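Example with several molecule types.
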Amino acid sequence: ETGVTQSPTHLIKTRGQQVTLRCSSQSGHNTVSWYQQALGQGPQFIFQYYREEENGRGNFPPRFSGLQFPNYSSELNVNALELDDSALYLCASSFLQGGGTDTQYFGPGTRLTVL
Amino acid sequence: DQQVKQNSPSLSVQEGRISILNCDYTNSMFDYFLWYKKYPAEGPTFLISISSIKDKNEDGRFTVFLNKSAKHLSLHIVPSQPGDSAVYFCAAISNYQLIWGAGTKLIIKP
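Resulting structure tokens for the full complex:
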């Protein structure tokens, strides 16, 4: 059973550029959540995808968008990058059933630096 | 407004002794809590969870206590080992998302 993987590990972009981050879910999971973690803070929820549809969204602007594919892998896209977007981006997979979600398992993260 | 708070940014404990990490929350609707451990350059790793129908859950060296009336939970690690040195996050599940505290850096001294 493979765990959650993310790519790339590190990324440097400049203001105004666009970026795509990728995540492969853990085997058997159907839900992917994305979080942004700024230095010294806990992760902040960006959004969650379940069966290729956005299932919930945190307080992030529309320039943060995502996709989930039939194999449950996912992408996070950020347009018009700003300096404050510099952070660790974490992907978590879980199995959603009934009214609640199971424990979320995290990938190693992608460190994004915006210059 | 932070709904999950970890008021101690860091904690230093002697190897072999008990480590106690604390977490407070404000939303009485939270009914499921988790503790994650994070090493540098790695994603958070799930440690232990507790449902609001319980007041204690134990897994090996790790025990989580929940005091619903005080809206407080704590993670006990006993005995503490050098490999326990990491940042520990408390999180609550609210619908589909995790709401996190800011973390406590635990340092185990030899």
